[in-house]
Amino acid sequence: MLRKIGKDRRSVVASLNQGLEVVGVEPADRGIGGKVVGLIDQGRLRIVLSHEPEPPGPRDWRLLKVDASPPKGHPLAVLRAIWHVDRGLRKDDLTSDATRLLDQIKEINKQYEDCVKNWQPPVIDAGTQVLHVSKKLRQDDAFSDEVLDDLFASNTEVFVVKLLTHRKTGKTGLQLFLPSHDILLNIYQASFENTDVGHWLLTSLERKTYSVDLLCRLSAVWLPASQADDTEVRSENWLVQISNAERAYHSWRITWSPRELHAGFIRLCVSERSKEELQQHKLTPEQLCQAMTRGLHLYEVTGQESDVLVAVPEGLQCQIRLTPQKPLIGISDWMLIGTRKADLALSPFARIVARWEEGVPGRTPLAGNAPELIRELLVLQGQQQEIATRIKTVEEWLIGKTPELSKRIASWRKVCELERDTLEVGVTCLKREGPDYLLIPEKQETVKEWIDGLVSLNPEGIHWDRYPLELRVGEDYARLIIRSVQGTEDGVGEIVLNVGCDSPRGLALIERVCDSAAAEDKERENIRLFLPDTQLRLIDNALDLLDLDQQNQAEKRGIVGEELTLDDMTLNTLRTILSSPEQLDPITSPWPPLPIPPLTPLSAKQEEAVRAAIFGPDMTLIQGPPGTGKTTVILEILRQLFRMHRKNPGFKVLLVAPTHVAVDNVLERLVTPRGGTNLVMELGIAPYRVGSTHRIPEHLRGFTLDCFNTEYREKLEQQVGKKLEKFRQALRRDRQVWDILEDGAACDAVSWSFALQNGELLNLGPWECHPALERELPIDFNCQEGRVRAWRQLRAQGTRPEECVRLLRRWLEFLQKNPRFFSELLIANANLVCATTIGCATHRELRSVVYDYVIVDEAGKEEARRLLVPLIRGEKWVLVGDHQQLPPYSDDELQKRLRREGLDPKVITRSLFEELQEPFEKSGRYVFLDHQGRMHPDISAFVSQQFYGGRLHDFPHVANHTMPRPAFLPDRPNLLVLDTQQLPDRQEKRLGTGYVNSLEQELAVFILRAFAKLPEFQVDKADDKESSVPTLGVIAPYRRQVEKIRDLLRKDQKLNKLLSAGILHVGTVDSFQGQERDLIIFTCTRSNSQGRLGFVDNRQRLNVAFSRARCLLLVIADGSTVELARKRSDVTGDEAETRDHLHALFVFAHGRGGLLKVPQKWQTRWSG
């Protein structure tokens, strides 16, 4: 122990005499002794002293620790003895000598070590491998450069100690041992973009402080990442060889036969702490002694000066650690039990100044009083801990770590765990099929729906390596990569998957499953198969970033290009918002004016919302009821932000929404010129739409990766091809000119030679030139002067055409080899990324991007857990939405499972927007858009009164929102309730899991047919897209009711034409959010004698249904059912509150003359 730190006993005593700075004190479990932890040598060494005034005997053993995980391998020896707890035993009763027994165990341990040395690690050739180094390791480990230099220079042996598997990514890893440096390295397969097999990431590097198993020696050439451009690396077959070597090593160790040891009576001393550990395993000291008496399996002897035995009592599934007791002399004696390098974070609270001497048997004890000193130190330590607790409370508040946040993160993780279990599809068959495996899932329909979804998302082909399945057997798991799929072409027969695995441990698990398939059912019951949980992993990553207790945070941030680099202040602010938003500093001063005038006139609240968003210190909430211009506000926020930051080339904004429709709505408004102004060109916005083109409108696909990778690349290739052809023509022309010049030079030589002999020049021309050449070069090649001028032109241009041709060919080859060049170029230059809340992190290139602003549209529809994915990627946030409209979607089965687990379903049904509305309103971070421009005042008056407390007002122009109506409907008001309680056939019918109402179906179609007969709905106007034909909509709370109404509409030629033209739309409440129609017919569907309203009994859905109408709202309902529902006494709370809205609608309509009783024989009376 002392040799490790370069000291001996005398130097320790000398250091103690200079002063001991106490950092901790621990009282004894019994008696008046205890331990003192302190610093010596000016705080460089940490030392632990122990005082036990009641010396035990030489036969006593002390229980140090109880651990749940048994040691691996086979025991060295089995000890047979009779163990007793120390209570009520005399020393004379003990017959075993601890010292002698320990010597025997050490001798057996030496024999085992000699046996282990006979293992000859096999040599495995790994070829050439590339090693990347994480940022964290490069910054923190001062000695890593020397180790890596020797590794890259092949100056050191490398042994494989252990095969690893990354807990998050499932990537294969290795623990390597370098004997020359006594260093252990942990490396994992790299998962960077554009890296192939043979690339590894070094994540940790540590000194070896314990014995390791040398599985094999690795023969490899290691290259740094900077030298790996054109290096050919070896495949992963050598990893399978390492896995085989691991199995061979453990099989070889089994050859050791444990030795038998016998002893007499032994006393076991159990401390209070050890008793607590035993209680965690539901054991008492007496029960432990009984198990040890049956047999004690010894595995290891550790320690140098203080020997510790690692053992497992027979019949128990836990390991214990034992050490012989050492007697002390007197009240002033201390025993040194540990020294190590000091932790710089330790803070001393006392300093002991005394005269220390080394303990020698027979020497007279000193006059010190150790128990009294321990009591004084305990008092001081208590005072220090009290102060530290107060400081810690303040620090946790400052960094955002609160019990509320920890509890909330834990509940979110539990929801993810329960949701992940819903992805299980089971295994019917798994067997070998050539080099891979054949897999038949059990839940065929679930797998088929999953594959169909992937096909729609990836119309150009599915990259199956992005969607690995997970096979679990107990605690072991393997990630399966789909190679091919059978049985999906015609939809007939079962789905069969051809799968493989890239992990050696995964392959070993699959082989084990295949081998046990014929052994029948016992192990097969533990085999589980899960679909990919990509979305849940993204949520887990967000939770890891917010969770201060996550131990692997530092390692994750060290992976280059894989993790966010959001500053701590921003993360702390987000933690505070999620846990205790009321602690945010209130904003009292008014916002500055807008940097530039708005593009379109804004109301006072709209302008306030824009100013709050662009000048707010952290997060801003903008609540926009129906028709208040939320999209207009978002566009103006973008316009002002990009104008403010136009000189910052790195400024980026992330725009997200829960649905593709909402994202595309904002993007379409942004790229469409308004009033002669193109915002994209004016502000230098480079939008990038994340998502598959299958779900994006055709006119917006130019902002997607697929378009850049196909259409734009093809256009550029055409342009480059034209340039290439042009340069080729120039090259052919130049070659023709050179041919003429060469012939001319030869003829000139002959002419001058003839002239020197005969006194006159010969005329050997003229030369015939291609007509195209004469047009391009107006030069007379028949005279020497013209040829000289052509030669000078060629000499001046040099080899430019040839160089251009060569460069263009290389450019085309580059485009063919790098098909994602344009997408990477788009991502690098995009300053406005548009995506869904989860889709913003699905592309690897975007996972490490941090945005200056994150704007969330329809934030009231997204649960907080999913909203974390975009929020952790921004430094400031703007949430736009309305929690009084549709809530987040949640699966009913998941809600039931949450209730069974004791969790509140609101964790997934309540949006973060709704949670923050009240505290943000108090702190000045909330703006309510209070003017609407959609609904006629007759409609908006009810919506404002029932859902917004009368805060919603009208723009003046909405009074003109009127439309013609059939004669059987009164001209006023614009909100009409058609009461069916007088009709005998009004009752609902159950159909599947929903309800239908035939009477209300017929009424809705009858009314639509009457509107279609009006002049405004003639066929020629319906065909003209630019004509102002009023739009119609029918909303029902049940999908079955919607289907029945749609079937009836298709049977009517005129209504079917309106339906096909998009003028008429029929759907559920959820499908209508974000839409508006001139006429809305809402059919309540429910009509019964129990007063049950079903889906209608939801205030948020009613708000959406009623607020879609611009000019006229017709509600078809049974007044008797509504009245019975109001009188029910078996509902309370929110349900009772929302139940009253339909009754309030009847009262409101009656007060304004809009309540109509549907008469008997209404078809006849209304047709006239």
UniProtKB/TrEMBL annotation:
Keyword terms of this UniProt record: Coiled coil
Keyword Coiled coil in record: yes
SMART domains on file: AAA (SM00382), DEXDc (SM00487)
InterPro entries hit by this protein: AAA+_ATPase (IPR003593), DNA2/NAM7-like (IPR045055), DNA2/NAM7-like_C (IPR041679), DNA2/NAM7_AAA_11 (IPR041677), Helicase_ATP-bd (IPR014001), P-loop_NTPase (IPR027417), SF1_C_Upf1 (IPR047187)
Domain named Helicase ATP-binding: residues: 598-919
Coiled-coil blocks: 91-118
Annotated ranges, domain AAA+ ATPase: 616-1119
Classification via Pfam families: AAA_11, AAA_12
One annotated GO molecular function: helicase activity
UniProt keyword annotation of Acetylation present: no
Protein name per the record: AAA family ATPase
Organism listed in the record: Thermogemmata fonticola
Lineage: Bacteria, Pseudomonadati, Planctomycetota, Planctomycetia, Gemmatales
